[in-house]
Amino acid sequence: MSQDSLEVISALLDGEPVAPDVLAAALLAPGAREALVDFAGVRAQVAADDSRPSPAFYRAMDRLVRDRRRGVRTPWAILRSAAAVVVLALAAVGAISLGTRFRGNAADEPPRATRVIQFTPGVDWHEGVQR
Amino acid sequence: MSAPDAAALFDRHHLAVFRFLRRMTGDSSLAEDLTQEVFLRVVRGLDSYEERSRETSWVFRIARNVLSDRLRSQARAPIDAPVREAVALARPAVQALASALDQALLRLADEDREAFLMREVAGLGYREIAEATASTPDAARMRIYRARLALREALGPSRAAVTRGPKEVSK
Q1: Chain B contact for A38 (CB, 8 A cutoff)
Q2: What is the interface pTM, i.e. ipTM, of the complex?
């Protein structure tokens, strides 16, 4: 049986597209039926594997994958949040620093008047007041 | 479409990943350890998950990297007796396993076994195997074909089929 025929049968088993005439020729080759049966038998043996990880594995994995679903944060996520906080803090400090520079130092200037009292000469401010 | 949920990914793929790694290493406890590492990396990598890569290919690419990292780190370790033993345990060729199929699988070339198991255990197509192994679909097809021929030879002509019932053969 030629290698090409076996390759065609193998590809067919894998669900790959095979031209019907090529498949027909491959299946007519001597030993094709036996090869197909053997390949299917190997597949069945592999598929019969029902091994599973231990309960300890599932406990460990449960913590890992379900905790993420519940919102428990990974170290990487915590690190990223911390970096974001630092960037925001630096931005705030920078903004305050710039504001101070452009406004000047407020302690060097008198406060702005909120009302003005005018003094008029000749007015007796005590007139009419009982002494 | 957003990145898949970690728990859903685990539910969908952990058995295939475990069985793939068990067949690759021939060691169940090592396979458990490696499977944990795979899903740790999957969870960490969810934020950078690329939509364009197929989910199964992505998970198995990680599994492959975890396995090769482990084998590389063991190979780099100082060669004293306990380490030599650990390396030997991780190297498939010297791991004694019970079934003829397991032994035949362990005698395959690493890349042939890898492609064959991705196909048969995880159900990946040629393109997905190519994505997971950084190769081509043609290379995946040839590796699987070589593995099948070698397994057929090792198990004996028509032996595999007659030892299984019709229900299993039809899977």
Answers
A1: yes
A2: 0.73
